[in-house]
Automatic annotation (TrEMBL):
Its main location: membrane. One of its GO terms (molecular function) is ABC-type vitamin B12 transporter activity. It comes from Pseudoduganella namucuonensis. One of its GO terms (cellular component) is plasma membrane. This is Cobalamin biosynthesis protein CobD.
Amino acid sequence: MLTGLSATAIALLLAAGVLLDLLLGEATRWHPLVGFGKLAGAIERRLNRGGSRHLRGALGWTLAVVPLTALACLLAGFGGLLALAAHAVMLYFCIGLRSLRDHNVPIAEALARGDLPAARLLTSRIVSRDTEHATPADLAKASTESLLENGNDAVFGTLFWFAVAGGPGAVLFRLANTLDAMWGYKNTRFLRFGCVAARIDDALNYIPARLTALSYVLLAPSAAGKRRAWHCWRTQAPAWSSPNAGPVMSSGAGALGLALGGAATYDGEIEQRPPLGAGQAARAEDIIRAWQLVARTTALWLAAAAVLALAIHGGTHA
């Protein structure tokens, strides 16, 4: 661990950050990640022009991420209770567990009451695919996939890097992940400029994504579900262009017994994506099941941190 914090402190701070997130939810005003998004947009508009787009993208990433991560290190460097509070607050601002629930459960509720326009509008806020003519099955699939993938991006990757490097680790991960979401597109505008941001996010996410996929396997509700989740991970993930989204979404879909992936519409064009999972098509209630899987995985990771802390503490006093 790179934090200088004890394993017990890390376990307690992980729990504190998650608890703050569940109690307070996403800050509606002055959220640091919203401000960071505006900063990143300004940097991109300034630098993403002319030649040497790869180098300009690397410079943009450095200008956006390094100073804020250094500031996080400075805040975490204070001693005593102030440093502990800084770690917990940084984790709170970086994690998005309640946000996943607040953005996805209303989609399930709108679908359950047959309010297709509301479900389409709510889904359009969390995915980039077209939703104007989406069917209930399309919307349920989109929401379920978003929950499974963002369980890693918004929750488990953040928890992992907090365990490694405290608040600064969580900040670094979330800033890098945000830049990938903003710049990591394979289109004319971002193919070269966003390459560095995409590759850094892939590297930071590599271990957390596989731990998330393994967690989804372990928490499948039956032995058959565990075997199916493992099989889907090993056979389907290589077909996905993202080295991290593939394992996470295929294992999660397999654990839930759902057939996800396949056709989706982007900018008016139907894109045939590789299959995810196996079983029935997603329905409104499966959005709730996906959220519950993410919530149980969070509990599993917090419990694992607590057990590890107890084992280390017991070992030092043996």
